[in-house]
Amino acid sequence: MSESLTTVSEQDPREELFIVPVDLLADDQILGLVEEYCTRYHGLNDQENPLVETGRVKAAVDKGELVVWFDPVNNTASLDRPQAQR
């Protein structure tokens, strides 16, 4: 008699994205994430100077409208909405 086993692949919790509180990051790290966000999103819109948005994006980070997501698998961080829950 053979039994068929169904295995459900569960993601290792150590590989899940998580939000990093901005007060744990240095100002230059946050600025780097803000600049990356501006060039990633606004640079694709053929804006001549996408970094002109850094003040607005930094304010969104300060208000919690944008948060820092960390990906432990790729060892990368980026800004996105809190409800993105990738």
The total of helices stands at 2
- Kindly state the number of beta strands: 3
Order of strands, widest sheet:
1-2-3
- Series of H and E elements: EHHEE
End-to-end CA span: 42 Å
Radius of gyration: 18 Å
Shape: globular
Average pLDDT: 85
What proportion of the residues is helical, as a percent range?
25-40%
Largest sheet: 3 strands, antiparallel
- Which class best fits the helix and strand makeup? alpha+beta
Low-confidence stretches: none
- Percent in strands: 15-25%
Structure description:
The structure is a single chain. This protein has 86 residues and is of the alpha+beta class. Helices cover 29% and strands 15% of the residues. It contains 2 helices and 3 strands; from the N terminus they run E-H-H-E-E. It has a 3-stranded antiparallel β-sheet with strand order 1-2-3. A hairpin with a 4-residue loop joins strand 2 and strand 3 (76-80). The protein starts with 17 loop residues before the first strand and ends in a 6-residue tail after the last strand.
